[in-house]
Amino acid sequence: MFFKELDRCVAVITGAGSGIGRAVAMTLAKEGVDLALADMNPKGLEETNELLKPSGVKVSLHTLNVSDREAMFAFADVVVAEHGQVNLLFNNAGITIIKSLEEHTDEDWERIVGVNYLAVIYGCKAFIPHLKKQPRGHIINTSSMAGFAGMPDQASYCSTKAAVQSLSESLWAELYHDNIGVTSIHPGMIKTNVVQASVAGAINKNKAEASARLVARFGMDVDEAAGAIIKAVKKNKMRQRIGVDSVLFDILKRLMPVWFHKPFTRI
User: Fold this and answer.
1) What are 191-203's pLDDT values in tens digits?
2) Distance between CA 54 and CA 41 in Å, rounded?
3) CB 230 within 8 A of CB 24
4) pLDDT of residue 130
5) What does the alpha-carbon distance between residue 129 and residue 146 come to, in Å, rounded to a whole number?
6) CATH homologous superfamily of domain 10-266?
7) Residue 176 appears among annotated catalytic residues
8) Per-residue confidence (pLDDT) for residue 84, from 0 to 100
9) Can you give the pLDDT at residue 3?
């Protein structure tokens, strides 16, 4: 099931208008992969497309609300009609909300569950039948190091990202004999606009801005993260931790599952 070479493949990437999605698209284009790119932000998609033009690969752009089930299934049909096949599916779109559980509104929960979790389910269900038609395929679901442990003021983000990890592990076993690999990606702090975007909707601006400064100072470059993700696909890894902080987060949680959370009470 290994993808030693990716040229002549077609990859679908959600959340491709910025951040990790854009960086993954740029990395894949260098390997000759044709791309179907989706995002809610058409301007971001156009910016990604402009960056991809020198590569010469075929690119289709799709303005899409990934939490809309019908739209996701229609998206799958459009991609196959335009590209003829799908080999790689990157369920990458995601958002974060920095609020306490009490401060989360019902609308906050519906939005983050829709984008971070239901969209992954819809993407998998919509594209798996098409992936099965190819000699081999791969699904890459973006979780987070936050999926390893619950953190204060990020209950919605941590719980949805933990759900993505569990879903991916189930799919890994279910699709093994269909020659479809499944990888859950667990980025640590990555220099993208996701945390910065959360500042606008945060109740506690100081906490949100402190998180954004921390990522800006210590976060991994997004292009380096994209390279690690593609390597994980080629090696058919079930999961891939991205960044030293993600690795340490995982190890410490496993070694000291209760003590690990005590410092959070003083943050």
Assistant:
1) 776 655 555 555 5
2) 22
3) yes
4) 98
5) 30
6) NAD(P)-binding Rossmann-like Domain (3.40.50.720)
7) no
8) 97
9) 75
In degrees rounded to 5, what are phi and psi of residue 133?
-80, -10
3-state SS, residue 68: coil
The answer on pLDDT for 205 being more than 80 is: no
- DSSP states of 190-239: B-SSHHHHHHHH-SSHHHHHHHHHHHHHHPBPHHHHHHHHHHHHHTT-SE
C-alpha–C-alpha distance, residues 160 and 145, integer Å:
12
Radius of gyration of the chain (CA): 18
Q: Where would I find the H helices in the chain?
A: 19-29, 42-52, 69-83, 106-113, 119-131, 155-174, 194-201, 205-218, 222-234, 244-255
Per-residue model confidence as pLDDT tens digits over 54-103:
999 999 999 999 999 999 999 999 999 999 999 999 999 999 998 999 99
Measure the CA–CA gap between 156 and 150, rounded to whole angstroms.
Answer: 9
Banded model confidence at residue 214, pLDDT cuts 50, 70, 90: low
- Over range 175-203, report the average pLDDT: 80
Question: Hunting for tokens 């335009």 — which residue is that?
Answer: 82
Which string of b and e fits 73-84 if b means at least 16 CB within 10 Å?
eebbeebbeebe
Nearest to 165 by CA among 116, 211, 130, 126: 116
**151 Cβ partners below 8 Å, 6+ apart?**
158, 264
Selecting among 117, 122, 157, 176, the annotated active-site residue is 157
**SS3 label, residue 32:** coil
Half-sphere exposure of 1 (CA within 13 A, CB side): 22
